[in-house]
Amino acid sequence: MFIDPKNITMDVLNLATLMPMLIAIGGGLVILTIDLIKENIHKSLYVMLTILILFVDLGATLGLNFGPNEKGFFDVMLIDGLAILSQVLILVASVLFIPLALTSKRFHEYSYPEFFALFLFMIAGFQFMVSSDNLILIFIGLETASLSLYTLIAMHNRHNSFEAAVKYFTMGALAAGFFTMGSAVLYGISGSLELYQIAPAIQSRMGEPGMMMFLLGGAGLLLTAFAFKLSLFPFHTWAPDVYEGASAPLAGYMSVVPKIAAFVVSMRIFEMFIDLQIEWVQTMIIILSVLTMTLANLMALVQEDVKRMLAYSSISHAGFVMVAIALATEKANIGIFLYYGLFMFTNLGAFAMLWVSRHKHRVHHARYDHPYEKFSGMVKIMPMGAIVMGLFMLSLAGVPPFSVFWGKVYLMSATIDAGYTWLAIIMGLNSAIAAYYYLKLVVYMFLKEPTEQVTKETTYYNVSKPLLTILGLAVFVTVGSIFYVDPLIEYITEMIRATNFGI
Amino acid sequence: MENLVYIALFAPFVGSLFAGLFFARSPKTHLVGVVNSSLIGIAFIAAVTLALHVAEHGAVHVTMMSWISAGDLSIPFGFLVDEVSVTMMLVVTLVSTIVHIYSTGYMNHDKAYNRFFAYLSAFVFSMMILVMSDNFAGLFIGWEGVGVCSWLLIGFWYHKEDKTFEENPSISPSWAANEAFIMNRVADLGMLVGIFLIYWNVGSLQYDVVFNALPHLADGLLVSIAIALFIGAMGKSAQFPLHTWLTDAMEGPTPVSALIHAATMVTAGVFLVIRANPLYSLEAVHGVSMFIASLGAFVAFYAASMALSARDIKRIVALSTLSQLGYMFAAAGLGAYWIALFHLAAHAFFKALLFLGAGNVMHAMDDELDIFKMGGMKKVMMGSYVYMGIASFALAGLPIMAGFYSKDAIIETAFNDGSFIIWAILVITAGMTAFYSFRQVFFTFHGEERYKALGFHPHDMYKYVLVAMAPLAILAISFGWFMDNFHEFITKNLPDYEMSHETHHLAPYLGGLVIVLALTGIFIAWKKYAGKGANAWKRDEEFEQSFIYKLVANQYYVPRFYDEFIVQPYTMASKKFWEIDKAVVDGFVDLIGKMSYKSGDVSRGMQTGSLSAYLNWMGVGALLLIVAAAITALIG
Amino acid sequence: MDYILSILIFFPAIAGILGFVVDKGSAKAYGVSVAAIELLLALGLWASFDTTNPGMQFTEFSPIISQFGISYNVGVDGISLFIVIMAALITLLGIILLRDDTKNMKNMIVSLLFLEMTMVGVFLSLDAIIFYMFWELSLVPMLYIIGAWGGPDRVYAAVKFFLYTFAGSLIMLVGLLAMAYLFHLESGIWSFNLLDWYTLKLTTNQQFWLFLAFFSGFAIKVPMFPFHTWLPWAHGQAPTIGSVILAAVLLKMGTYGFVRFSLPILPDASVTFTPFIMALSLIMVIYTAMVAFAQKDMKQVIAYSSVSHMGIIMIGVFAMNAEGLGGSIFLMLSHGIVSGALFMLVGVIYERTGTKIMDEFGGLAAVMPVYATVFGVMLMASVGLPLTIGFVGEFLVLLGFYKVSAIGTILAGTTIIIGSVYMLALFKKSFFGPVRHEKNLGLKDLDRRELTALLPLVAIVVWLGVYPKPILEPIDNSVKALLVQMENHAQLESTKEAIIVSKKEVK
Amino acid sequence: MEIGISHYLILSGILFSIGFVGVLRRKNLLMLFFATEIMLNAVNIAFASIGNYYGDLSGQMFAFFIIAVAASEVAVGLGLLIILYKKYGSLDLDVISTMKG
Q: Which of B330, C52, C335, C359 is deepest in the core (most CB within 10 A)?
């Protein structure tokens, strides 16, 4: 038993596995300390510091030994390919996110060093979440990250932000209840909280009467919890409101990073079930993902606000990717990361564009910050801005050769390979529906006449060099995807192959 | 000789380009008329030379270049000048030359003089391709080419407005042009099908290959080919029921009517049947041939009956053309191909003459066409009177005239074949022909000078035009004299038609019967219409109310029928289809869009914004999952 | 000449990017020069093309996503060569025809150049994904052209065009991916290379479903009945240049797709589906021709006539013999030239009068004789008059299809009747009769710009009508190779019987 | 009657259900937090009893962590709640619904 002190050596403890998280947490503490020492330091310092910390974190992550059975810290850490890969994605997305704080106008949350500290804590939470197959640690990571995230949302300091945070928080608390209850059920069946021990235990007890009931019940509870995190229908209701309430960059961030983390955990848990030949899980996930992508798409059609539209579109994308979990093949798993790796840049870019055009006051609409009218005739006034946003939209719609297309193709291909051609067709048709609302923005930008309120001042209200840099990077990655998809797939494949999926 | 072939073929083309490219936009110039007439004349001379050559040395066959080759299909631009085609070439170029010269006078006052010659020469070119081609596809080029030129020329005065059917049965030149084109296209489809059948069963479209292969083909197939090709011929030669365009085509300038709608183009169908005689003389397609003959006889009578009551000078001539085409088909259908061809040539001459004469009258009468408004014009238009008289004699088939020999031969053929019904019809029609042609002559040139009251000041055509018409008149009289020479020449290529001994024996009586009938017809016409004095002729109003008269005067209501049962339903159906297209086909697409949008609108209703509702959704979802889990677990 | 295909594809795109820098005033001149160079390059390709070689030439291959078998793979054969040349030609003439006072000329030129890249790319791609990429990308500039320079309902029309085609092609994408998977199952490697796919023998069941998937992408693009309704909208609203390119080139992508994908990869399904395709095509031919007759708007007549003619092309594609298939490819070219010219002509009169309603005109032949003449030539080509470009293809298609179905051919052959009905009605309404409006009396005839754009097309119409051999021969070679390929890969005996590479039983 | 593992688990289930129903039915934010706490505590019971049943400490550990997390949740939650109350003057869930659709 691991509580026996005699057996513990530093080798077994393998503290290096904790390094990335420790760096993030330590960095957060350093930022708080700096604030204690000297107040009112300009946010750029914190931004740069955070980026540095993230880079160190990234370096530490990449430096880790990894393998399907690379364990550490009382064997609760699992540093397999999946963990490394998802941490890299999380960190890259974070690095992209943080410079968006450097807007030309002052926004409330970024003037607090706590924001950056919380941000780093949140990252540490996500990192814990993805690099463990211990349900306790996953829970702790999840909650650390979520609690930080609620706070970050609320720090935007608007009516909507508080409302969003409360909604997210309350539903998150409920989901935490489900997660823990699900874990308890699994624990009850298997007597273990480690996934790699749970799997064989379940397998050996599969035949017992009544076992299936508990198994499926537990799976259902866990599915509820992660469906909430991944914003699957009907657990998605928080997402549009939270995206609307959060600041644009944070919304973009939320549509990527927490989802990657949740996908990783879902992969670990649900693919275990699927590998155990429990078809129910597969069926349910497919039903959920079909419902999610379809309904989210339909609801996105009728939105008047671009940000809210993008929120629904993010939900739909999550539903799209969720299919891969149900397939539980290597190709599908590669597809998840390829998709999110590519989607990340485009989506962050799109939200960054919204952020650039974010005005202190709602110039165009009583409720919305980014109604479609805001972009009316943009090509006439700001052609580059319109083209950039248009590229993001086309990419999100899945027009080749822009980045998201490759993810789509890969996932659809994986779906077909697994024998679910009908599902691939549904995915295709959903992309067609989705094209409508992305196109709607393109139509507004390119085919309509500008309204009076649309001027360079209002639309480029918030612009700054760092923002443009991030945008440029996003465009570059979006457009040039055709040239790097190959190595990307290669890298992801290598990582996925070095992963322990329990069975 | 090759060069002569090309000269005959391309001289008209050069003329067309000359007028079309260089003078299309310049004001009227006689240069165009002269050059084009000369070029056609050159083509005529080339044709004559070729004819002599053919008579002496046999057919000339040239291949210019390949046209379409795809798969196994290979169509060259190849030209065959043999006895049949050279006859056609002679007829075409001769009549064309005269019509060209005639047109320089007739179209003298028309603004679009140059354009007219461009079209007219283009027509000659197309017609030459039609007759000279050595394969069915080449024939089809000419076939369609003459169709287009006919379209252009019928619609030459395109600026005229549409009238109602009552005002002008042809509605307008442009309408008539479209009608002609479209109706011909109906037939062309048949022709195309024939070509396809030939290709897929023979593998070639060359005449010689096809005709050599015919004996090896199945009977049913041969019948299909024969029918398909004949459908094509029916369109071009305006056989019932595709005949209505021909009378409407009279909206075109009169030289056009003379050349295209009397002498040459409309005989293309007959030419096709003659050309394909190896097919139509096969035992297997005897039924088709008999049908052709019967249809020909029917059309001969049918058209003649309509001509009896017509008042429009050009329509009368057009209907007589139709009727004579019927004769030709009757002959061809009965296997007397060379007689059909002979009548074709003879008819070309006297009918062109008749039309050009009618043109003179029209020209004099400021384009007035109603013969009721004319009368007694022989005083002012002696030349035209003589020409039209000669032509009418020829048409009526009076002795020594060209028509006498050719038409008589056809009637004899019918008798010889034992097809007495056809024979009877043709004989009766001959009498009717004499009547209506002289009805027209007497109405126009004899009797009371009704035009005076209407304020016309007619004068005859230019002298040189009248002189230019002389060859036609001479041929209308004398062409028949060369029947034996023609027979000898043409039967090298076409099968001979031997009259039986009995027929030979009866021939004088048969001929006499026809002559008697014709003379009777002329006499009745003389009695009725040639008298002088104010009361010499009166319209028989009562008779004009009778059913028979109305039936005939309204062309047996066939145009009406087409309008009511084809044109209008087609238009209606088109409009309906358009509505369906918009409402149903497109509506369905839009419906999908609208439904998506609507369902989006409905589903966004779940986003009430209220946290408790959200929690309930989540709870419901969780419960459903658990219930589903329970059910699945219980079922197994 | 090694990289000529890549140059052909990407030269317009690069020129398009550089075009952003060009001064507004000289944008048109820039566009004309670039398009002219592109055309010269395309002609150069033809000059160095080996017409006796039926296979792919000038192929280039470089892997893009080797894990997944996606590669940049282009090549040209007799089938694609001339469509590419036509695309280049039509783009050039379309740009020439642009009025100097077109608003946002620079954006227009840039979009057109990008569009040209995608068009050329589609026809030269030998990799399914690259093909799909250009296929989808072509929608974007077209969306902009229709949406930004179109009529009052332009946005609706543009979005409809985009979404409809996009939806169809996504299902096609599923088919492509499934195809790649089947290839993977068979060979163990991933490949989207068409030439690889050609080697694959599929069961009839697989072919059936794949055919349906491909069909949904291609049929919408063609557009086949009942998926055609986006086309009248798009044409009705698009600016002249948009309609010209749409009709001349973009529609050909659909039929080209059938030729390049459906036939050689799925020979059995193609034969199985022939009656179905025939039925739809016949409806297209007859029904849309009738709808065309009911139109009041000149442009809509031509739009619907395009659908009708595309029906003939479809029939030819499924004739399964060299005559029909070769004819349909020739018809693609001729329809491109003719419909392009007709749309240009409608554009000309629209620019002058601001209306396309035929009843507003009348008597134009007297006012604008040169215009009427050019229109007349195109009309005659459109109704398939021999010695014009329109006849050769139509004749061959009908001839070829006769082998498949005599009744079908007769029904399709009615196109020569009803086709002339609506075209002649159009001509009569607009050009004949008295001039209906005073203001039309002063209309100017074609000016030099318009003649420059139109006369080359007239010349081509006549040239290829009289002497189609230079084009027909390479097409024929490649088509025969394609049919041999189909025959070799057919699973069913009945398919082999249906495919006629060369007539065996000539008597 | 001997109190066995199943009794604990049934208790846990009942508590969890109570908490769940509370979450669904309560309109007051504070009550909602209580309901979630009940749910978490129900899970704690389950973990503790199962851990005991297996003689395995990880169940107990999980329970401890849940307690810790619940505490921090309350901290964050109450903070939000206070701000919200300041802004809206109410803790009624239906009032907080400006964002919808």
A: B330
